[in-house]
Amino acid sequence: MIRFDSVKKLFRRHPVLDGVTLDIATGERIALIGSNGAGKTTLIRCLLGEYTFDGEVLVDGESPRKQRASVLGKIGFVPQLPPPLKMPVGQLVTFAAAVCNSDPKRIETIGTRLGLNIDELRNRPFNRLSGGMKQKLLIAIALGRDVKVLVLDEPAANLDPEARHIFFSLLAERIENTSMIISSHRLDEVAQLVNRVIEMDMGMVVLDDRVADDSNLAAMLNTKLRLHRADDAIARALSEWSFTDVGEGMEWHGLVAGPDRLRFLGMLSRYVGLLKAIDMVELDPGVTLQ
Ligand SMILES: Nc1ncnc2c1ncn2[C@@H]1O[C@H](COP(=O)(O)OP(=O)(O)OP(=O)(O)O)[C@@H](O)[C@H]1O
């Protein structure tokens, strides 16, 4: 589906991509990880045809430089930094749908699922939205059409846990017939979304591993915590995860999205001395708690 063959990119004579060769098949979900400056965004920009480079990139047999419109028609892209657009939200949705040959309603439906009130935002300039709202809208635009490749650059960084769960479910709906490249600094943010991990360092691929992917992206974990004592800081953190206090600040219940379990445990590790018991049980598909 996607082929990078000996891709080299120099900036001011300095190699930023130093001979990257990769084949990515349909159905593969890649975590593209690496420290700041490793070359992840540059690789993505080459895939999108934004840069010239040495070597070859092909998407479904087509070159992003020579057949740019056709290649971009196959790729849904959520950038790391939202573009500084002043266009009102309603106009942006209509414009994006027209460019991508999609239906604005489809984009709006996904935006609504992610928690955006599109009608309320319709006349608001895009650059006046909060970081999370911008990200939700960019995700809705990328997912609001049929694509063969999804490229997501730190896509869930600004989303609250509820929106993250919906985002994971939206990805789960696309799993069969899409290749995904999800770029992140942190493997624990994306580990459970993917079945292959590619790590870059100094413009080179330094690790390329298949990983088990039996975790269901749409799974939910019924989670119960008991604490030694009530504490304001952990109470605030758990409230951000929409947990309910069922025992005077010492017992908390809530739901954690399956792919977010490491992130949740990472948050809990800050309060490890307060924890008396943790119980996390994956709900059977289709089961919802009242
Ligand atoms: N337009 C540019 N002009 C000059 N140098 C650039 C340009 N874009 C990126 N670089 C340099 O290329 C290197 C790789 O940058 P890139 O943005 O691809 O890394 P990254 O892995 O995406 O990092 P991050 O995780 O910080 O986003 C860095 O040293 C960066 O300074």
Give a list of the ligands: adenosine-5'-triphosphate
CATH architecture of the largest domain: 3-Layer(aba) Sandwich
CATH topology of the largest domain: Rossmann fold
Give the SSE string.
EEEHEHEHHHHEHEHEEEHEEHE
Largest sheet: 6 strands, mixed
Identify the overall geometry: globular
Total of helices:
10
Computed over alpha carbons, the radius of gyration is 20 Å
Number of domains: 2
Average pLDDT confidence is: 90
The strand count comes to 13
Physical arrangement of strands within the biggest beta sheet: 5-6-7-3-8-9
GO molecular function, one term: ATP hydrolysis activity
Domain ABC transporter: 2-227
Family: Belongs to the ABC transporter superfamily.
Keywords: ATP-binding, Cell membrane, Membrane, Nodulation, Nucleotide-binding, Transport
Characterization of this structure:
Belongs to the ABC transporter superfamily. This is ABC transporter ATP-binding protein. Pfam families: ABC_tran. InterPro entries: AAA+_ATPase (IPR003593), ABC_transporter-like_ATP-bd (IPR003439), ABC_transporter-like_CS (IPR017871), ABC_transporter_ATP-binding (IPR050763), P-loop_NTPase (IPR027417). With 290 residues, the chain is α/β, with parallel strands linked by helices. The chain folds into two domains: 2-210, 3-Layer(aba) Sandwich (Rossmann fold), CATH 3.40.50; 220-282, Alpha-Beta Plaits, CATH 3.30.70. The protein contains ten helices and 13 strands. A hairpin with a 2-residue loop joins strand 1 and strand 2 (14-24). The radius of gyration is 20 Å and the shape is globular. The structure holds adenosine-5'-triphosphate. Adenosine-5'-triphosphate binds at residues 11, 16, 34, 36-42, 185.
